[in-house]
Amino acid sequence: MRTDMKRMGTKGQRAALMGALLAVVLGGTGCGSECVDSFDCRDKGTPPEGQLWACQEEKCIQVPVTPGTDAGTDAGTGTDAGTDAGTGTDAGTDAGTDAGTDGGTDPCVSVPRDAALGTLKLQSGFTVGESAPLSTEVVAVASTPGPTYSLFALRETATGRDFFSLGTWPDVKLGDAALDTVLAPADRAVGVTTFPSYFLAYDGTRLLAGYTKNGTGATAPGSVAVLDPATRDGATYVSAPSNYTAVGITDTFFINGGGVDTVADGFGVYALVTSAKPYTAVKVVSFPAQVGGSGFSAVADNGIAVFGYSETGTYVNVAHAVSPAKLSAAVSSRTPVVLTAEPQVAVGSDFTAASAFGSGVAVVRGPYGAATDVSRFSLTPGLTGDQPVSVGAREPVLTVADACTSVDLLSSLGSDLLVVVKDSNGRRIVRIRQGP
After folding, report:
1. What is the pTM of this model?
2. Is the pLDDT of residue 285 over 80?
3. What's the CA gap between 236 and 259, in Å, rounded?
4. How many domains, the chain?
5. In this structure, what CATH number is given to the domain that contains residue 399?
6. Residue 2: CB partners within 8 Å, gap ≥ 6?
């Protein structure tokens, strides 16, 4: 059984926390269990028309497809705060995206769809740019600043997770060979179980990706790999327990998890300063004493960061906005920002991915396997650096019309949003712009 910690939820606790979209292990899976969430049921094959797989009482069963409900989560668990980081959402639970059914027909074949967005509905105030096919093995994407955008990918392979070149936009092409591997040498041995964190961050020079291993809460063992794709000197591996998501600004990564290097003080956001070796680690954001786990991260074009965590018990994701001045002060003073004292992003539901979108943040709203929309929130700096930022009202970008097309992950391209969509026509990455 595959234990993908980005998408797991059990009764009363997680077996693991993804990928955006979204990696914190909170409990083990019983030896006799068949599944911990619907993602584990994919090996059962495609369910009949109108059905999808769900995990109930640690058994895979078929349930009716009901748009807007979370049929893909465990019975009675509510929502799952895990993600793809993604770093992305669990599009695999959506039976409508499969190319066929047991009867050999696709119920979505006759549904009208857009070549880029499928059946997703673009909302007023946004336009569709270029799109390109994307391999199903790519679980996270990062871009360099423009005007020429070089793309990089985190790719799942038979041996683990690797950094790959992804060409230049819009000529997306997966490189022939890996730039390096995310797994530290000690964790490449046969029999070592690792769980990928579905994020890929870029600090202007270096890439960062991570993974965790079996453990509990904020102390679950983990590691991040830092790679300069230009020099190809080999990755640097740094301890990072419970790393779940990460984002980068110039010469700094912000890692949402349980610690970095020798600094570990419970769930929060930790800065890894990469301007010189050895890298420097410091905790920059404190979460409440009791949280369900770490959460999502994004940094807008204007430097305003959005960090989050999952609530205790429900594991619903929440997020707050932090000004760049406060983050900079936290790095230099080593005094963390208290996240709950900063303005909250009023998402209005659970969400399963987050990414920068110009001077704001975009999120995939809804629980795993039952996304309702992609929405944007503007982020405006305060009049002075020490004043709180202003979070705008929700702006729908894309709405999910049915089970025929799903949102797989989010990323950014300059001031634009990259959305990976999946349906029976394949998987592709689509550029979304603000404005007419």
Report:
1. 0.78
2. yes
3. 17
4. 1
5. 2.120.10
6. 39, 40, 43
